[in-house]
Amino acid sequence: MTVNSEMPNGDGVSPLKPGDFDVALERVDDQYHLRLSGELDLATAPWLRDHLVEIAADGPGHVVVDLSRLAFIDSTGLSVLVGGWKRLRESGGDLVLRSPSPAVAKVLDIAGLHEVFPIS
Questions:
Q1: The pTM is what?
Q2: Nearest 5°: phi and psi at 32?
Q3: Percent of the chain with pLDDT over 90
Q4: DSSP secondary structure code for residue 3 in this structure
Q5: Closest CA to 70 of 24, 109, 26
Q6: pLDDT in tens, 11-20
């Protein structure tokens, strides 16, 4: 498993192997943009949780999580997103999901989270 937090190089696509996870993070004022790639699961979710905790600790912020390159998400990954959403709302911020891949959109739908999260 590889976990990476750097911006992808070249054409903007990180070459990921099965089980890998990557987050590209960009901050502009009080807005954070996270682009998740690979697989968000039991092994990789703690890394994302730590970043969402840090963002919420910075004060109210607006977080957009781009899921277009996320190939897989399990219940632990869903739990991290819900926890981050709750934490941000408590601090006066918000978390929005953007462009879930078809596989991730199906999981969000099955879990009923498409009714909880703002999804654009």
A1: 0.83
A2: -120, 135
A3: 67
A4: E
A5: 24
A6: 444 456 667 8
Helix axis angle, 75-90 relative to 45-57, nearest 10°? Answer: 0
Nearest 10 degrees: Cα torsion 2, 5, 94, 110: -20
What are the pLDDT digits (tens) for 42-53?
A: 999 999 999 999
Quickly count: other Cβ atoms within 10 Å of residue 10's Cβ: 7
Q: Give counts: helices (H), strands (E), the chain.
A: 3, 5
Query: Which candidate, 119, 87, 93, 85, places its Cα nearest to that of 104?
Result: 119
Over residues 46-71, the mean pLDDT reads: 92
Among left, alpha and beta (phi > 0; psi -120 to 50; other), residue 108 is: alpha
Tell me the one-letter amino acid at 80: V
Q: For 3-8+30-115, which CATH superfamily applies?
A: STAS domain (3.30.750.24)
Residue 70's Cβ-count burial label (10 Å; 0-12, 13-18, 19+) is buried
Q: What CA–CA distance (Å, rounded) separates 82 from 79?
A: 5
